[in-house]
Amino acid sequence: MKEKLIKWLAGLLGSGIMILLLFGTFAVVALVGGNVMRLFGFRYDSVGQLLLYFLLGELIGLPLDLISTALPKVLYRMGKVDRRQGNLLYIPMDTLFTIAAFWVADGLMASVSTTGLSLCILGFGTALITQPIKKDD
Fold first, then answer.
1. Letter string b/e over residues 15-52, b meaning 16 or more CB atoms within 10 A of that residue's CB
2. Distance CA 76, CA 83 (A)
3. What pTM, to 2 d.p., does this model score?
4. Given 2, 12, 60, 115, which residue has the most CB atoms within 10 angstroms?
5. Distance CA 89, CA 74 (A)
6. How far apart are CA 7 and CA 15, in angstroms?
């Protein structure tokens, strides 16, 4: 009985640490992204609103992100495009999907105000730093 309790507490502690690491990473990405966007006209009332904005934008954009990541991979594996073409197809799709998701999130939050330029910078920047088709695929 005591061993089960220790295992359960260890699992709970490990899960808590993983959630804290995940949230910490998300917070750093949101703060960096928000400050870069701020250079291009993005405004927010508080850091909490900034984190909520990025969380909402990511939740809205998750289905679109899955599509923009999966489509180039499928075309690559079917032999319709090579790796470079698949990654080049991904960039405009992911940029537009990110812009759309964060534009909707902006419309849902009155405490956040963004510009088209800041959304374009965010979308294009995130699309450039990710590649759906790695060299080893």
1. eeeeeeeeeeeeeeebeebbeebeeeebebeeeebbbb
2. 6
3. 0.82
4. 60
5. 12
6. 12
Q: What is the CA radius of gyration of the chain?
A: 19
Q: How far apart are the first and last CA of the chain?
A: 47
Q: Which residue has the tokens 């073409």?
A: 85
User: Residue for token digits 């695929």?
Assistant: 137
Residue corresponding to tokens 């934008």: 57
Three-class DSSP category at 70: helix
pLDDT digits (tens, 9 = 90+) for 26-54: 888 888 888 888 888 899 898 889 999 99
d(CA 73, CA 110): 37
CA 103 to chain centre: 14
